[in-house]
Amino acid sequence: MELEVLRRLIVAWLRSPKQFSSRQLPRDCSICKYHGIFLPAGHPPRWNARCPACGSRERHRLSHLLYQEIDLFDRKDLRILHFAPEPYMLPLMKEHAHYETTDPKIEGTTRADDIRAIASKNENFDVVIAHHVLEHIDDDRKALAEIWRVLVPGGQAILSAPINWSRSGTFESDKFNTRAARAAAYGGADHVRYYGRDFPERIRTAGFTVREFRAEPEQEVMLGLGRDEAIYVATKTS
């Protein structure tokens, strides 16, 4: 593994030498416990974003902090439905008998649910996870209603999406209906909106109580997290 990490560091230096032109702060990975220099990720590259040992990005490491807080890995009794699962989660959950993955486009998931019409009976899951999914869904309110339906009372949805913190309201318009237009307007060719600070309120309208999970500023630095990333824990209260 050490040789593979070294290889990845060398490749990253060759591809993005500017990141390494000055002394970099060693970071800590909350997932694999690597300590050292992180790599760039994305196009254009975000510096110090990717762990060279496990490949995790910023939002993966933030999610991991939350999962540890709510004992997601230790609670083997939890029935979990994970939309568009992040690859790093699969080996961590392989011994979890009630962990199901789902996406209509990703190969290898255990299910292929449309989040707007989940093929499940009511009150069937304790946890539903959907990171960076809702910005792709034309009717996100229907998706939230479906998540509410399949959760048990007291169950939790773990949700996140790209947020423009400078705007109070979500931006979506029928004028931007091509891939090029959506990429320019929403930051992704397959996105259909850019959420504003009202994202948690949209979740509340589906019947959830909502709390925001963010890392401490020191953690953002040392774990190489995004300064504009938050996760919302939505609890079905009735």
Summary of the model, kept short:
By secondary structure, the protein is of the alpha/beta class. It is built from seven helices and ten strands. The strands form three sheets. It has a six-stranded mixed beta sheet. It has a two-stranded antiparallel ribbon with strand order 1-2. Strands 3-4 form a two-stranded antiparallel sheet.
Describe this structure in words.
This protein is α/β, with parallel strands linked by helices. Helices cover 26% and strands 21% of the residues. The protein has seven helices and ten strands. The strands form three sheets. A six-stranded mixed β-sheet has the order 6-5-7-8-10-9. A two-stranded antiparallel sheet has the order 1-2. The N and C termini lie far apart (48 Å). The model has no long low-confidence stretch (mean pLDDT 94).
